[in-house]
Amino acid sequence: MSDAAIRQPLGLRLASTGFLVFWSLLACFPLFWIVVMSFKVPLDAFADDALQVIFGPVTREQRGGISISDLIFGALLAYGIYKVPGLFAKPAVERLSAGRWGRFVIVPVYLAAVAFMLDAYWITGFTVLAAVAGAALVWFLAFADEPGEDSVVLGYLLATTIYLALAAALAWYAIPFILSVVRSVLSAVPLIDMLAMPVIGVTGEHYESVWVGREFYRNFFNTLLVTAGVTTVSLTVGTLAGYGLARSSSNLAFWLLILALVFRALPHSVLVTGYLPPFISSRAILQPLWDMPVLGWVLGLFSANPPTLYGQPYAVIAVLVSINQPFTIWMLRSFFKSIPTELDEAARVDGCSDFEAFRKVIMPVMWPGVITTGLFSFLLAYNDYLICSLLLNSQNQTMVPAITQFFDSETTSTDQVQAVAAAVSITAPLFLLVLAFQKQIVSGLTAGAVKG
Amino acid sequence: MRRKTFWKFVGPSVALMLFFIAAPLVAVLWQSFFLSVPVVQSVEVETCSPGFPSQTCVTELKSRPVLDENGRPVTNTAFVGLQLYNAVVQPETVWQALKTGDYEAILRIDFWRALRFTLTFTFVTLPLVLSIGLAIALAVNNAAPKVRGPVIFVSLLPYIITPVIGGISIYWLFVGDGIATRLIEAVIDRNIAVMTMGWAVEALMMFYRVWHVAPFAFVIFYAGLQGVNRDTLESAMIDGASRFERLRYVIIPHLMPLIIFVTLIHLMDSYRVFEEVVAFNAQSQRISLQWLTYDFLQPDDSGNRSIGRASASSILTMIGIVIILFPVLRRTWRDHKS
What we know:
Chain A is an all-alpha fold. Chain A has helices at 3-6, 10-38, 42-45, 50-55, 57-63, 68-98, 101-121, 125-143, 152-188, 205-213, 216-246, 251-265, 268-280, 282-291, 293-302, 313-337, 341-349, 354-383, 386-391, 399-402, 405-408, 413-450, and strands spanning 65-67, 198-201. By secondary structure, chain B is mainly alpha-helical. In chain B, helix 5 packs parallel to helix 9 (198-225), helix 5 packs antiparallel against helix 11 (243-271) and helix 6 packs across helix 9. The longest helix of chain B has 33 residues, at 110-142.
């Protein structure tokens, strides 16, 4: 078809472009606005005039601000931080994985973590379990490959960690210094010294009082614990099930998938209604297990008395993993389906058992699907409000339900701006996630729909 | 794959789902027929206050919860049949209201209020999500390849953001003298308070949901548009089909499976509407079915959770889900059989 034939009339093109611009603005405006508000003193943040909210004259007078030169150079540096991985990631990852540098880093880190755990808790069921799990992870990351092969996953992990640490250090220590040098140089020159004058009022005090004063970092660590647990467990269980379902065409597999679809539709509050009574009285329910001869001794290593599951992050992880299973197995199944069965058959001909074929032949080509599904598991756990707010008590609350504590005290406007700052703090990791994994998110969204 | 190997792979996942999804469902059904109340006993209490010439004593009957040896209140669980469902649905009041024609009275009962809102919400947002998602997909497909990446990036933000936070960020624009309220006031030249009007809150909640889900529909439809058969389009053009006719008779039929998929997902998700009520602080104006259960589960002032009523409203919510999913399940079953 020639281009002239599909060329559209000007009116349609203008309408289409205009609609796109409008949608893009609409999509990011509420988020942009809370970011702007979170950096102002309350007087500016709740001002009548939109321009006053953006430029923050009161904030500029009381707390100082940033100048045009700061904006330009800050943006340049941020762009650099964003672009550098694209330029140097490949050789760096190759270096880090090829020389087996990973082993020299990850083994000491693991030993240090075990030593720390023993120092803090001594030998209990949990420390033993964590040490074994950590050892398995180390073996999987650094030693599981054939000799002579590179451990690429570990290389990526190390490269990302090192780069993020460097970037954070740069942002924290070097950038303020560079910006102040630029400002002092510019202000020495007449005419362009205007560029160095503070224009936009900015203050970070709300973030400080949220994270330090209100101890939001506790909620952050709880979120970290819950999301890490949910992602790893649901991927482990889900890949196995997804592979099994993708490679089976029996009636049973069909009905399992339909059952999973029905389970996916269940409102979460229905399930929580079922969890709450046994979770609250779990100590009495579980007591017989603790009284049993051998099992009781093993369980006693974990805790002297049966635990009250209500308020335990571990219980919430189990709940979220199960709720997430239907979605996870549907998505992973469609990714496994796109891997040709000839691959398994070839492996089986070469003498692999089913599990070996899965582990050594299928999984290495399955990483994109696993990463994508992991992203969505992470999102479910990170964004959950209902389950965490009902099953966790206020001592170990995660970030999203904890934000409601700011509204109970919605008396002063300072509290409100602090709530805005907390909201932005919760959103920032998600923003970075989209920035880094846009392709995977899109492929995950379309996986279920397009591949059927 | 042999049956045994299949179970080895699927076993852990199925066990988790049975234990944490199927078992709670059975428990909820069970709980909805039983009412647990703390056992209360009447005790004669004599309270005396010093007086002259003799102290004045008052004897009264007080009810106290009975405590067991651990100091916990003893509860008595009894089968109550459909009493809990009655308490949630209140059929007599509804019947009375229907007879007198006072429909407002029905909507004063929490359950019917929640059902009304949930259904309106679901069926108003559905066409909006589909049409806006399709419109964005068509517009992006029209745009120059260079801008597609950034537009997809920006569009993903509302979808990926924590629902409660996204809702609050829109709530902040309108609450009190928020920036959007100012804008409206400047246009109509009158003072308004958006958050005091029930219908406005409802509209904002729907707006939020469309804003949140339209990107999902957009990404799915955009992926589908890449597979439209160009030959069919071309022959339609040669046959003199206008732009709209091409959309109507070539593109939309091609996207139909995806439209059904998005519809299914959206029906399931918006029937569970919950976070909007929290984010827009709307419990006094609009509540949803899932929020109703959540509210029963929250401890009241004396620390009791009305598990029984929550179970009853859960079961009623589930019945709704089954009705919504029924056509889909029937179709899948037919496809599988043939």
